[in-house]
Amino acid sequence: VGGGVVEEIETKLEELVSCIHHTCTAVAADAVNRRSECEKLRAEQAWWSSTRGIAVERRRQRERELARDLAMQNVRRLPSFIRLAEIRCYSAMVELGVSSVRQLHKTLWDHPKLLSVTVNFCDDSLPLGCNDDAPSTIAMMPTRAEFSSVFEELLSQTVAAISHPYDDFKHYTRHKMRKFLEVSGDSAGVASNAVERTLVYDQRFAAASEGIFRKLSTDLANAHELAERQLVEYRRIYEYGQGWDEEQFVAKMKSITAQDPEGKSVDAAALQREMALMSEFAYKVERLKPVQSVGVLSVEARKVKQLLTPIP
Q1: Contact 235/137 with Cβ under 8 angstroms?
Q2: Alpha-carbon distance 271 to 251, whole Å?
Q3: In this model, does residue 130 exceed pLDDT 50?
Q4: Which residues of 228-255 are buried (b: 16+ CB within 10 A; e: fewer)?
Q5: What burial class does residue 64 get, using C-beta atoms within 10 Å of its C-beta: 0-12 exposed, 13-18 middle, 19+ buried?
Q6: What phi and psi, each to the nearest 5 degrees, are found at residue 129?
Q7: What's the gap between Cα 153 and its chain centre?
Q8: What strand order describes the sheet that includes 115-121?
Q9: Distance CA 64, CA 37 (A)
Q10: Residue 227 to residues 119, 120, 134, 220, 298, Cα–Cα distance (Å)
Q11: Sign of the CA dihedral with 17 first, then 20, 25, and 28 last
Q12: pLDDT tops 80 at residue 109
């Protein structure tokens, strides 16, 4: 989530580190040049034996000392400058994490049929079998627990992806500036996963995450209730088909006007009632909607319709 934003931030951070490095390198090079000039001046000390020469040398010495002190002040300020850059990067990554999970929450509300669940009759002989979401008549796949697990993993990966650029920035910066940091007396190590730890306890992030799981739980419950309510009459058709004997039915049709081998006539009225029931079942199966929308979920009942069509 937010991959383009992360890449842009990483690019900006690399530019910032490069700028810091070039600045410190220039300061150090300037200090080296000034020390070289000082050595040359000492070699010419004999020429400065006059009173005027001594005064000029002292003035230049004070200038060199002032420049050296200024360079050291800049080096000592470097840790504070780096910490400021780290704070800015850290804040940007935390805000990116919060906005990412908020956008995911908004997407679940704004886009119906974003996710799909398949419903079927709860029967151990069927592919979906039974689960805790539907202990009586309806099975649903994926289950509520599986949805929760997937979204927990999605949020975890999002947080980890957002946390890594900040950790990489800190390690890269302190590695590139390690010589200057050692001179300044700041050589502390770098703690990892700071952004990830912060997001876990951020109330905005927690509220958006809770909203995601609450939305999923509500829509899954509504989808199960809809399937339970609408498919209850089709359970009768399914059970009828499971117990239907095609050979027996064909034999009844052939012997409608004749006596069976045992001398018992076929009950024509019963056969007519059975055929009327089959016509009623066929009409209901035709009316069954294979796909319905419940919030963010697309409820798929195609497997149910396949079990009923063609009906016996």
Answers
A1: yes
A2: 11
A3: no
A4: bebbeebbebbebeeeeeeeeeeebeee
A5: middle
A6: 65, -145
A7: 7
A8: 138-141, 115-121, 297-300, 291-294
A9: 9
A10: 7, 9, 10, 10, 12
A11: negative
A12: yes
Which pLDDT tens digit goes with each residue over 181-233?
565 555 555 456 778 888 888 899 989 999 999 998 999 999 888 888 888 77
- Coil, strand, or helix at residue 11? helix
Q: pLDDT (tens digit, 9 = 90+) per residue, 229-257?
A: 888 778 877 777 776 666 666 666 666 65
Contacts of 264 (CB under 8 A, 6+ apart): none
Separation CA 169–CA 283 (nearest Å) = 66
Q: Do the Cβ atoms of 298 and 115 come closer than 8 Å?
A: yes
Rg, Å, the chain Cα set: 39
Q: Which residue type does 17 have?
A: V
